[in-house]
Amino acid sequence: MSDFYQNGIITNFHNLTRRPVEALEVDLVRFSMRRPMGLILPSLYSELEGPALSHIVDELAKVPYLSEIVIGLDQADREQFLHAREFFSRLPQHHRILWNDGPRLRALDAELAAEGISPQEPGKGRNVWFCAGYVLASRRAEAVALHDCDIVTYDRSLLARLIYPVAHPQFNYEFCKGYYSRIAAGKLNGRVARLMVTPLIRALKKIYGPLSYLDYLDSYRYPLSGEFSMRAAVLDGIRIPSDWGLEIGVLSEVHRNYSTKRLCQVDIADIYDHKHQPVSEDDPGGGLNRMSLDIAKALYRKLATLGIQINAESFRTIKATYYRIALDLIETYDNDAVMNGLKLDRHSEEQAVELFAANIMEAGKVFLDNPRDKPFIPSWNRVQAAIPDLLERMHAAVELDNKGKV
Q: Do 204 and 318 form a contact (C-beta atoms < 8 A)?
């Protein structure tokens, strides 16, 4: 970003000078003496066979300041896990793979289920949650970053900039969110953030008036980015959704637990591209269709906890207000794209808005029809209260998977 403007109610770190990654890493190596750092990589096994992850691993192998890399591996059988051990073996840093589908971690998950505190559905949220537990168990890192494994434009400066605000010993930030522009192949991407989240937040502000929570969310330049960092202690107390509402859920939890003075965002990449989700108009269980539904539910649940009363009539008003704001934003994005020589298909943009508007109503129906819904995975504080030695046994299980026979 070329500006230095501080908007919203959280601190914004810009990329003003394009400072070389080597200079950032000199600082981070020094910081690591006082505040050891780790990285969480939630991954599907299929990503080991994709175009991005091998390059990411090559870049991470050059990073000099990490004490630990934790890889959460989903959808892998025994042979695939053994291949993953070999695949990641070129990392020089201490690293461990959580074989989430292996018998040892499945047995621990069964214990959690018996206590009613197991994640309810598979997915990124469950993967990240188990990785967070392992970070707490290993105690190797005091500052932790997380990013996806499908970033085809990855270089290690992304990680350096992402973790810097929470790693600096003189900074007081507990949580940092990464942002970037979503441009690839001459097109403006990021439809769910641009066309659903931002106009929905602004519609809610227009309807319910000034709420610090909505002002807070509207301060993030890219609230759906999969890249964030935090002090390790943050992992103890947050509850995260297991569905597509993960990113909004994490932002809501850190807002609940910390002053906005302790939260920030940082520009981490000039160019960012990753695997694109299909719209999936005909499949409410997949793609941007499912994502928009889960995000709307996450926002409604949070508003309810703030004492906002929402009924069936409310959702008609929300939909109508959202629709008008979203259509106006399409005009803005189209003009911005033209000036920058980018492509934007206004027809498909308006189709996406129509789908998101329908899901705003459907999410409201689901929200009202399921008052006992328990969308959040319990915090690790609660898990340790229920099963005091589970983290230690998880650590031992992961060690056996990574070093022993499986």
A: yes
